[in-house]
Amino acid sequence: MTAAVEVRNAHKSYGGRQALAGVDLVAESGQVTVIIGPSGSGKSTLLRAINHLERLDTGYVRVHGELIGVRVHGNRLKELRESDILRQRAGIGFVFQNFNLFPHLTVLDNIIEAPVVTRKLPKDKAREIALTLLDRVGLADRANAYPRQLSGGQQQRVAIARALAQNPKLVLFDEPTSALDPELVGEVLGVLKDLARGGTTMVVVTHEIGFAREVADLVVFLDDGKIVEQGPPAEVLDNPKNARTREFLGKVL
Fold first, then answer.
1. Is 198 exposed, middle or buried (0-12, 13-18, 19+ CB in 10 A)?
2. In the chain, which end has fewer C-beta atoms inside a 10 angstrom radius, N or C?
3. Helix H segments across 119-208?
4. Mean pLDDT across the stretch 194-212?
5. Residue 153 CA from chain centroid, whole number
6. d(Cα 113, Cα 102) in Å, to the nearest integer?
7. How confident is the model at residue 253 (pLDDT cuts 50, 70, 90)?
């Protein structure tokens, strides 16, 4: 069975700083992969490389067997046209830490925008899907509200519904609770847990160790642009083999 995500020999530098230093990662279909690590360890860079929001210096990413953002040209990789990259991204949901909702659109219109524009869905069909997703994330009664009328937790739940409206084969979450007040974190994690129970393939960058322990199939500890340790939560979180992993968990638990 083809892996949902395959990252090979991923390197990425910004100026003189190396954000990714030879990362190899495989995330399986129908599973939840959680990436943890200190700030500046390369977590968000790795996540953004999966849908080619960040272009790798060397290495490559495949999603369900398809090279992302590049094609093989002779003995090297060549950048795809922007239209082809956008087509690939349409099949990969991405939930940002700061919601990124359109402030001038209602909740409903935020969700139906991409399916209508990129997938050419009829507006009535997109609306039907959006209302079903809003019910799924517990916001069926806020379809006609604007983002400014919602709490941070509600906005993030709308952002999750928007990502799911594209019927993606993979959903990426970049610290989806980090911009939320503590009392709102639970409602967003609850939606993620429901998605996990439903078999949605997810790669989640988070500081929420409890969530990782409860939901992850694979926990990946990233530090200084390298994968230091990875495995099931019971191994990485409860019985880490690497001293750096133990040091990090000792500070955050």
1. exposed
2. N
3. 123-136, 152-164, 182-197
4. 94
5. 17
6. 10
7. confident
